[in-house]
Amino acid sequence: MSENIDKGEGLAIAHNDCDAFFASCEQARNPRLKNRPLVTGKERGIIACASYEAKALGIKRGVGLYEAKRICPELIILPSDYETYSIYSKRLFAILRDFTPSVEEFSIDEAFCDLTGLRRLYRSSYKNIALEIKSRVKKELDITVSVGLSLSKTLAKICSRYRKPDGFMAVPGKNIHTFLKEIPLEMVCGFGPNTVALLQKHGINNVFDYIQRPVSFAQKMLGKIGIELWKELRGESVYRVSIEPKEKYLSISKTKTFTPPSCDKEFVKAQLMRNLESAFIKLRRHRLSAKNLGIYLRSSDFYGSGSEAGLNRHSSSTLDFTEICSGLFERLFDKNISYRATGVTLSGIVTEGIDRRDLFDDPVKIEHIEDLSKAVDRINEIHGKYAVHLASSDAVIAKGERTHREEVNPRSCLPQRKSELLKGETFRKRLGIPLLKLN
Fold it and tell me: Is the pTM value of this prediction over 0.85?
């Protein structure tokens, strides 16, 4: 196995993972919320993120708000303010890039940093560099981050999870074998429930057991991914830190949870069509085209149903898929069920322009639909998202939300950044700064 990372052998990879990120952003923005049980997700009816004070009471992500309130009557429930979370996220990554240009944004609240070779620049050990990153995030953003440091991305991610929240763990090569004896298989990113069950059937009870087996065993059990993780867990870096922005998409998904649940067919369909519009807006923004569409409906008791279909060619035009989406919806919708969420997934994605039409396609019609989609994008860019939208999604505003407003005050489900505007701001256009509560 690789030797000590501070002896210059091997890489020094740090994984930075914010603690209860959404809730922490709310507490940083409003100090009155610190040390209090808090959750976000009011607009969805279920918990999107729980503070560690709430987690200590047994309140977890995905729990319904009614159940959470039963557990803790004093629970603070806030709508998710994704705009503010995105601002904090960008600042987090900017801090990381002040230390090293090799930063891979893994999600909105976590990133890998390659610190290899920075000891001379900072005249400090890799451990102290990682701790300085952690300290600066706390000082500038007032949120805590758990940091793991080791020889590979997989090991670093395990380390960051090991002492959450606000933890730090560094594992040099010489200590890998003792450290991994304490790590259950579930903690490895890439080992799902089925993989864990398979390995346990072969006498693998922890991560150390796995890396003690020969590489041929890893290949036989899990194939290529098994070999890669076997090497990563032994301190050999296979997955390098990538600083390139994500350009390749295998699929694009858009979902919408609404509260209260509804059995109003027109309203549920409108939510689904709005998902479709959002997915295609993103598809065109990245200059991509899709061939297949999948939809799903989730009921109020959290059961879901889905279906999919596709075109005989690729397209980036929403209108090419509206009829398909409507047909799939008619097949799935049950008037006796109350639904709480809808979603669409675009797949078969290729770079825009790869378009295999068959003999019976109407090229003039196809080009007109493409031009129409681009014109809608230009109008919405000027006047705000959904200024021009599908008539079938209009019930979200014209009927559905009005009906729901009789039951739920929508202003109570708006995040502060959308309800308290600065001078000159509009509901659609705001400055990229969070609003802080200073008293």
Answer: no
